[in-house]
Write a structure and sequence with these properties.
Layout (H helix, E strand, L loop, with lengths): L23 E2 L3 H5 L1 H12 L2 E6 L3 E6 L2 H9 L4 E2 L18 H4 L10 H16 L3 H19 L4 E3 H6 L1 H10 L7 H14 L7 H21 L5 H7 L6 H32 L1 H4 L6 H14 L5 E7 L3 E3 L2 E3 L4 E5 H5 L31 H19 L4 E2 L21 E3 L6
Parallel strand pairs: 1-2, 3-9
Antiparallel strand pairs: 2-3, 4-6, 5-11, 6-9, 7-8, 10-11
Helix pairs in contact: 5-11, 6-8, 6-16, 8-12, 9-10, 10-11, 10-12, 12-14, 12-16, 14-16
Length: 421
């Protein structure tokens, strides 16, 4: 990894080439199903930093190179998180689908400098107090209950019945909410809507409902603290006010639930479709760990992250980036960058991927470890209960969710020998 971004990438268009000004739309079925092919074509035509068009043809830069993503995330003084710098706000409609991603909120996601370090410290200390053995035990208990609901039928659709509900129940329990119930189910539904809305759905309204529910939670925990992440954030010596804790609890829940669910689903897909794992997966814990890490390289749950905003005019990968330009980080493309890994991604034993980002705004310690506990326990628990589980359709029939941001299956049908309890 270099300390500075390369000024020009081999094979990229030279300065002044018309390709520099031609944005590529981040949409379309082909992209949603096989994004790696789009990354390859963008890299071929534009180099490590490509001009793209977001919803409503809003221009941005997609950073594809491993070194370039590392550079952006390591230089907050050039590429910062406060989205109010964006030079495109006048063109953004009030119902823009990506507003939940980029609309400024005074949360740990968007604040900068000393304020960010303060807020990230509060989140890290609250998460660090989670007993990982207890979390694994809780996830196994949740998994047991979920599997019991379909084990007798001999078939299941694992995304809806297992991969999504397990981390959801785990993370809301960590934050001090009931692990199940109408209130919790509505919260998770609205989180999904706000972060990955389908056509006709209102992500902005959904985010408003999420905020209202977490405001109630924070008020309850301020009055009667418990042994949970929300209470620890409220009681932290940093003395954050309720508004700050609300925003940061939302961030913790959103960051933990859907990406972890897709990590579980993508790992199960790999285990069920790749012959390398077929002989050792049942009870083979090393194999599960390798699969989890390989997924972070090849099918990382957070494909693209929006984003960073240029603090001033600068260069990146041979591009002239203007002050206020939006920079989208393609973790998926960076993890498979042939400039860094000419023989392919570094492999299941190497953890130098960028799936948890990098730099000061990376996923805070120990969140990646907690996500690993949840995902690993989920996969191992399923394999323990259903050792002969097989894919219910041909591998090519599996459908990915139509999202340029998340990489996750729409469904994962399986069959197995019925288990009677």
């Amino acid at each position: 990894m270099t300390d500075s971004a390369p000024p020009h990438a081999e094979g990229g268009p030279p300065a002044g080439c018309p390709a520099r000004a031609t944005g590529v739309r981040l949409s379309g079925l082909a992209y949603q199903q096989t994004p790696s092919e789009l990354y390859r074509s963008l890299r071929r035509d534009h180099g490590p930093v490509a001009p793209v068009l977001l919803d409503n043809d809003i221009p941005a830069w997609l950073v594809l190179g491993y070194n370039e993503v590392s550079y952006v995330t390591g230089h907050d003084e050039l590429f910062a998180r406060d989205s109010r710098r964006w030079n495109q706000w006048d063109a953004i409609p009030a119902d823009w689908p990506l507003l939940p991603f980029v609309g400024y909120q005074p949360s740990v996601l968007f604040v900068e400098g000393d304020e960010h370090r303060l807020r990230a410290g509060v989140v890290s200390r609250a998460l660090d107090a989670v007993d990982q053995m207890e979390l694994a035990s809780a996830c196994q208990e949740i998994g047991d209950l979920l599997i019991a609901a379909f084990a007798g039928s001999g078939q299941a659709e694992l995304m809806a019945s297992y991969a999504h509900p397990l981390p959801m129940r785990a993370v809301v329990r960590l934050c001090g909410m009931p692990a199940s119930g109408v209130d919790t189910e509505e919260l998770v539904r609205d989180l999904r809507l706000s972060l990955d809305a389908h056509e006709g759905e209102d992500p902005v309204a959904a985010y408003g409902r999420v905020q209202a529910r977490i405001e109630r939670l924070v008020k309850e925990k301020r009055a009667a603290p418990g042994d949970d992440v929300t209470s620890r954030m409220l009681l932290d010596p940093a003395g954050l006010d309720d508004e700050a804790v609300v925003q940061d609890v939302i961030t913790v829940i959103a960051a933990a639930q859907q990406p972890t669910a897709n990590w579980i689903g993508n790992t199960l897909r790999l285990l069920l479709t790749d012959d390398r794992f077929a002989t050792t997966v049942a009870g083979g814990k090393l194999s599960v760990g390798q699969a989890l890490n390989e997924v972070l390289w090849l099918d990382t749950p957070t494909q693209n992250f929006i984003g960073r905003w240029a603090v001033r005019d600068t260069q990146l990968g041979g591009r002239q980036i203007k002050a206020g330009d939006c920079v989208v980080l393609s973790f998926a493309a960076a993890n498979t960058d042939p400039q860094v890994w000419p023989e392919g991604p570094a492999g299941a034993e190497n953890s130098a991927h960028l799936s948890f980002s990098n730099g000061e705004h990376r996923c805070p310690f120990p969140a990646p470890q907690l996500a690993d506990v949840i995902a690993r326990t989920a996969v191992e628990t399923l394999m323990e209960h259903l050792p002969d589980v097989v894919l219910g359709v041909e591998p090519h029939e599996l459908r990915w969710r139509p999202s340029v941001w998340m990489r996750g299956l729409a469904d994962l049908p399986v069959g197995f020998t019925p288990v009677l309890h």
